[in-house]
Amino acid sequence: MSLLFKRMFMDWKFMIDSLKRLLDFLGMERLSLNRPV
Q1: What is the superkingdom listed in this entry's lineage (predicted)?
Q2: Which of 9, 3, 6, 4 is nearest to 17 (CA)?
Q3: What is the pLDDT of residue 23?
Q4: Interior/surface letters 12-31, b for 16+ CB within 10 angstroms, e for the rest
Q5: Is the pTM value of this prediction over 0.85?
Q6: What are the percentages of helix, strand and coil residues in the chain, rounded to 5?
Q7: Phi–psi pair at 35, nearest 5 degrees
């Protein structure tokens, strides 16, 4: 039971990290697009 819970927690953490990374990537892209050349 605890093993399953631990695995679920790890998956949730992984999803959150992936989402954060994606948002950071999109933010960087937006900044680079808005930056005057």
Answers
A1: Bacteria
A2: 9
A3: 95
A4: eeeeeeeeeeeeeeeeeeee
A5: no
A6: 90, 0, 10
A7: -70, 125
